[in-house]
Write a structure and sequence with these properties.
The protein is α+β, with helices and mostly antiparallel strands. It has helices spanning about 1-15, 25-30, 65-75, 95-100, 110-120, 125-140, 150-160, 160-175, 180-190, 200-205, 220-235, 240-245, 280-295; strands at about 20, 35-40, 45-50, 55-60, 150, 195, 250, 255-260, 265-270, 275. The N and C termini lie close together (about 10 Å).
């Protein structure tokens, strides 16, 4: 495993096309695109890493996985009255379907759906308390109390997030937003601004690995369902392509991180800030493809390793 990760990091570092760093959040535009890290936390307790695996990055939409777990923990299946479970086939911040589908977002991983999950775990709390809950969840999943929120990234997104504000206002106009647009957006942008290294993210992802001796943060059934949504919706309109190339549930973020789960085997985090045409990490996706090919780990095939 260690040799494989070292090889993957070497291939990534020498790749001529590293994709484009997200610029619509000004703080993210400053990140050096030459970085690449990967970490695998296996279900038998081993951790392997290569490249810049200790460098913290903005997890952005990978946070939607933790937010979903929190929202489901709070309201259970009632969440599905407010958000669907189908891929949208559209970009992460699209508003197109919201009008046609009466303000019920397609799934919890597109921005509109994530605003609903944030609104759900925020309900009855102040933003500070809700973010405290989120951090407690992530820190306990990773067993690492040093995980924090980058305030500059959160502010940078709040200052420029007109698209997300319009999504939130549209949801509010349809009666699918309870805590108020400003509170929800403030909480959402702070949630997206959680920083983690690949090592921390891989460790945090273990709660989705489907092993009985893993941290028991969610029930077995809920783990399976979150994994299913990651597979079908975790890479926006690149979800089908990621399933085809990698065959593992995964969630990407515009900070260039990807969390992928090999059920029963491992949690894998990869990071490279340059994005492909779908807004998913370009080298991260390529690295995951190489990883899945070499290990044979795929939910669609028999394991070889
Ligand atoms: N905070 C980002 C946004 O709402 C997250 C998007 C992403 O990571 O895909 O635009």
């Amino acid at each position: 495993m260690q040799d494989l990760l070292t090889e993957i990091a070497e291939v990534a570092k020498t790749s001529p096309d590293k994709g484009q760093v997200a610029t619509y959040i000004p703080e993210l535009a400053k990140i050096d695109p030459e970085q690449f890290g990967i970490c695998v936390a296996t279900s038998d307790g081993n951790v392997y890493s290569a490249g810049d695996a200790e460098t913290p990055f903005s997890i952005q939409s990978v946070s939607k996985v933790f937010a979903l777990a929190l929202a489901l923990g709070k309201v259970g299946d009632q969440l599905w009255r407010r958000v669907g479970r189908e891929p949208s086939g559209l970009s992460f911040d699209s508003i197109l379907l919201l009008e046609r589908e009466n303000g019920v977002p397609r799934n919890p991983f597109i921005n509109a759906g994530a605003l609903v999950t944030t609104d759900t775990y925020l309900s009855g709390y102040s933003p500070k308390e809700a973010l405290g809950e989120l951090l407690r969840f992530v820190r306990s999943a990773a067993d690492d109390d040093s995980i924090h929120i980058n305030e500059a990234v959160a502010r940078s997104e709040i200052a420029t997030g007109h698209r997300n504000f319009s999504l939130a206002h549209y949801l509010a106009s349809c009666g699918n937003m309870n805590a108020g647009v400003d509170k929800v957006l403030g909480t959402y942008c702070h949630q997206c601004a959680v920083e983690m290294s690949c090592r921390q993210l891989a460790l945090a992802g273990r709660f989705l690995v489907e092993r009985d001796d893993m941290p028991g943060l969610v029930s077995k059934e809920r783990r399976r369902r979150i994994n299913a949504l990651m597979m079908t919706c975790g890479h926006y309109d690149g979800s089908g392509d990621f399933a085809f190339r990698v065959g593992l549930p995964g969630k990407s973020g515009v900070g260039g991180g990807i969390l992928a789960i090999a059920p029963g085997r491992a949690s894998i985090a990869v990071w490279s800030p340059g994005l492909n045409q779908y807004g998913n990490s370009k080298l991260g996706t390529e690295a995951m493809e190489m990883f899945a090919q070499k290990t044979g780990w795929s939910v669609f095939g028999a394991p070889q390793f």
